[in-house]
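tool_log.txt
---
The assistant was asked to compare two proteins side by side. It first ran the structure predictor on the initial sequence, then on the second. Raw inputs and outputs are pasted verbatim so the downstream comparison step can read them without reformatting.
(1)
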Amino acid sequence: MTKQNTTLTADEREFFNNFVVAHVAPHSTQTPKQAAERAWTYQHRPTNDKLIKAHLDGKQSLALLPLWYQVYANIDIDSPKTQAEAVFNKLDELKIRADQYLITATPRHRQSGNFRINFKLEMNNEPATAGLQNIVLRRNFNFHNVETNPRPNVSDRLVCGFNSEFLDLHTRADLGLDLRGKLDALRNLRPIEITELPRIQTELPAIGEVNEQHIKTGSTFLKEGKALLENGLQSGDYNRHDAQHRVIFLLWKTGLYSPETAAEFVKTWIENKHNGQSDAANSGDWQRIHAEIDRQVKSVFKLIANRLPDAPHNRTVEVTRADVLMAAKFAPGDVVKQKQFFNLIKIIRPNFHWKWILIHSKKWIHQIASDSTYKDLKKELQSKGLMQIDRRYIVNSESQKYKFNFQLDSGEPLTDADGKHIDTYYEALEAVCGSGRGIQELTGVNRMTLWRNLK
C-alpha cells in the first residue's frame, strides 16, 4: 500500500482514496506502446504513488482488481454499431437518467467510436459489493457481448488517466476537463440504487454466490493470518504491511477484539516477530509502523465491519450463569422456548459487541429452533421488544440483519467437572441450580417435562 507521507497533490490523493485505497496487489500497467499492441505488464506488488502519478500523467495506464466495495462501475462499448443503441435503450428501460452516468474514452478509442459508460451502483445508500454489482450488470446487459465491470478476479483500467477524456453525452466531444474537473464530475454522479431497479429486486436472492466468494477470500486470509501469528514474518512470503493486514483481519474475524486492543496486539506482535524481515523494524522506525497499524485497524474494523457486520462463528461455546437465568425468565413454564432463547444467546454472544448481527436462516432452523418453530420464536422476540430485523440489508438470500435489545454479561463461562465449556441448556441448568428441585423452581416445569424436552 502506498505511504502517506508522499508527493501526491490533494487532487491525486482524492483519486487514490476513491480508486486505490483498499488495493494491496496485484496490479497491471500498460505504456502507450503496449496499448498499440494490446499488451499489459502484470506485477504482484502493491500500488505506490509513482504508479498513480504515472497513470494520471498519461505515461502509462494502471489496472487493478475490483475493491470489495467498489465505488464506480462501467459498461465498456467496444463494438458501437451493435452495442451502443442497445445499451442506451436498456438504460432508458431501467429509468437511469443522464445525471447518473458519465461517458469516457481515450483519443484512440474515441476515433473508433468506442467508449465507456461510468456510474455508481449503491445498495441502501452504501457502495455495493463488487460481486453484487457484477450480478446486477450481467443480468441487465447480457447481450451483444457487452463487457461490464467490476468482474471477479478481472483487472480493470482506472479512469482519469492515460489521456482519458470525459465526453459530452450527445456530441461525444472531449469536455476538456482537468483532473479536478474529472473528480468533481465523478463525485457529483447521482447514484443508482439497486433496490429501485425494475425487475431486479425479486432476483436479489441469487447474490448468494457473492457470499460464497467472501467466505473463500476470508478463509484464505484466516489461514494466512494464523500462520503469520504463529511464525511471524518469513523471507519471501509477505511484506510487513500485507502480513499486518492478515493478522488484523484474523483478529477482527474472531469477534474478541476491539479496534484498540487489536492495534496494541498487532504492534506487540510485529515487534516480537518481525524476524529481521522488515527494513522499517530493523531501523527502529516504530512510530511509522505503529501509525500504519492504526490506519489498517481503522480500515478493517470501521470501514469493513460497519458495512458488513460479522456473522456468527463456529467457535467454542461460552455461556454464563446470567444467560441461564435470562433464558428461564424469557418464557416461564415453557422449557422449549427457554432452550431456544438459550441457543440464540450461544449463537450471538461472540459478536454481541456489534450493533447489528447477521444470522443465516440455517442457524435459526438447525441450531436455535426448528423448521416449524423458528418463525414463531422470531415473532415473540420482536413482540417483546427484544429483537429488531432489518430486512433491507441483503447479503445473500437467507441472511438477515438483527439487533438485540438486551444485555449479555461478561461473567465466567460455565464449565463441567472436567473444565469443558457447557453448551446444553440442561447441563447449564444443573450447573446453576445444583438440584432437580432448583431446576423445577427456576424453569416452572416439572421433572418429566424437563426430561422429555431437554434430555
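(2)
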Amino acid sequence: MSTNEQREFIPERDHGYGNSPKAFGEPVVVSDGPPQGCPNCGCKKVFQISVAVEAPPQLRVPEGFEAFCVYVGCPACPWASPAINSSRPKTTE
C-alpha cells in the first residue's frame, strides 16, 4: 500500500472538516507536543509536526510563500489533531 493510499485509508483524521490539504513535503517534527499525550491510545509522547501542503482555497498565499500546516501527531497510532494552515516564505535548498 502506498503512502497516499494509507493517508486516504485513515478517515478519523478529518475531524469532520472534510478532506485535508494534500501534503507534498516531508513531515518535520518541530517540538514535543502537549504533556497530556495521545487521547486515542494513551501514548505519553506526541509531537508537533509541520508539513508543506497545497494551499486550501480559503488560504491566500502571497507570491514567494508556501502553504504549510502544523498539527500534533502520535507516533504509536493514526491519531492527529486538526491542523492549523498558514503560509511561510519559501525556503531555497
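---
observation on (2): The two ends are 30 Å apart (CA to CA). Residues 3-89 form one domain.
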